[in-house]
């Protein structure tokens, strides 16, 4: 471990005798702790910006974004990756989440999966990873061998690396080229990093992909014009978006959306027709 490294994620809770508290007390104290998360994230905005810029550059030149983690951290990476195709209409192969222990670990704890030092790189190799891609390791503790060794190997192969962790001066941050260290302090339940640390990681992940997708042109104005129309609610939202952008009647917007199955294309089609008429 690095000199001066302290696992704040493992320090004792600021609260004791939780079992004696009323539900109202428990909720109040959890909420108090949660309010610290956004402040901690704000302190890392410069680092988050640097990582986002690199992710954007890699994706603009044909690369992919990989998240790699274990346990809650791995699941959060998979969650963020899985939401990019329906939200932004990108390929499922553009943002990829990898978790120690494989797909089984998404719903189940896999014993010692995070301690396998060589498996992280092996899991990345299955995707034929190259130096066009970028890999972001996610680990609240910053000490997960599965993630650290994967990033070390990426560095050796000239593949850009970043990380999201919730301890300062961690082994993971020391190997990541673009480290983000969101220090949220002790958890309400001692060591339960699914709480504040997990919330912090989710907030940063939201920032990374949302900002990147905006810069890749996947948002117009403030609308998800490339979203997948996978249910009636989204179809209705798409029709409304088309109407707002073109000022056409609902039936016209509905017909265009039905034809193209894409809000952006439907809007462009209507605007092109208007230009021809004028």
UniProtKB/TrEMBL annotation:
Keywords per UniProt: Carbohydrate metabolism, Lyase
CDD domains recorded: SIS_Etherase
Organism, as annotated: Mesonia phycicola
Gene3D superfamilies: Glucose-6-phosphate isomerase like protein, domain 1 (3.40.50.10490)
EC number: 4.2.1.126
Catalytic activity: N-acetyl-D-muramate 6-phosphate + H2O = N-acetyl-D-glucosamine 6-phosphate + (R)-lactate
Active-site residues annotated for this sequence: 83 (proton donor), 114
Protein task: Specifically catalyzes the cleavage of the D-lactyl ether substituent of MurNAc 6-phosphate, producing GlcNAc 6-phosphate and D-lactate.
Encoding gene (name): murQ
GO molecular function annotation: carbohydrate derivative binding; carbon-oxygen lyase activity; ether hydrolase activity
InterPro entries linked to this entry: Etherase_MurQ, Glucokinase_regulatory_CS, MURQ/GCKR, Reg_chr_condens, SIS_dom, SIS_dom_sf
Boundaries of every SIS domain copy: 55-218
Family: Belongs to the GCKR-like family. MurNAc-6-P etherase subfamily.
Keyword Lyase recorded: yes
Lineage: superkingdom: Bacteria
Gene Ontology biological process terms, A to Z: amino sugar catabolic process; N-acetylmuramic acid catabolic process; peptidoglycan turnover
Name of the featured protein: N-acetylmuramic acid 6-phosphate etherase
Keyword Lyase assigned: yes
Miscellaneous notes: A lyase-type mechanism (elimination/hydration) is suggested for the cleavage of the lactyl ether bond of MurNAc 6-phosphate, with the formation of an alpha,beta-unsaturated aldehyde intermediate with (E)-stereochemistry, followed by the syn addition of water to give product.
Complex formation: Homodimer.
SUPFAM superfamilies for this protein: SIS domain
Known pathway: Amino-sugar metabolism; N-acetylmuramate degradation
EC class of the enzyme, as a word: lyase
